[in-house]
Design brief:
Elements lengths: L1 E4 L16 E5 L6 H13 L3 E6 L4 E8 L8 E9 L2 E2 L10 E4 L4 H5 L3 H12 L4 E4 L3 H6 L7 E2 L6 H6 L3 E2 L4 E4 L2 E4 L5 H15 L4
Parallel strand pairs: 1-11, 2-3, 2-7, 3-6, 7-8, 8-12, 9-10
Antiparallel strand pairs: 4-5, 11-12
Length: about 210
Amino acid sequence: MIIVDAKVEVGGMGGTDGMTAKILLVTGDAAESLEVLYPYQRLREEGYEVHIAAPTRKTLRLVVHDFEEGFDTYTEKPGYTLPADLAFSEVDPGQYGALVIPGGRAPEYLRNDPELRKICKAFFDADKPVAQICHGPLLTAAVGGLSGRRVTAYPALEPDMQAAGAEYQDAEVVVDGSLVSSRAWPDHPAWMREFLAVLRTKAPVV
């Protein structure tokens, strides 16, 4: 099931002003491995330059969330390690055409980081493309970016999305203008397919 609101406007950063199309991916320790690595590699395959930002420049320790019989919720195991390119304090949002917010446990504590909150707000204020998945919307909710929007997220976050003023949809991907949401890593193909459709209009590779 795919829900799309085709309110994509022509313009934005990435090609129309001659700048290299760069994408910022924000994450931290305990982020879900697939939800970091899949968009990172898929976007690079398309020709985008992707920078990973975290609270500090360090080697991030990612995790694997999986679904196992007999468990009421997902399980967590150690995942891959990945170096962060930038600290949040070093990020200039104006240098990036789009933002990616993976899930895992990281968004729960990252939403309290004042530097990251400023970064996220800058992307929403400029109506640049934002891709969020799983628990990632906890971050965008914290900066008021979901009020009046249609989103999906990990199903357990439905009350959080409603509290943030969003209309929650239980679908593999929901597109509301420049915001592209998915529930979790099984939805990756739909998530990146729809996000790339937005990027090709608002932040194309040049």
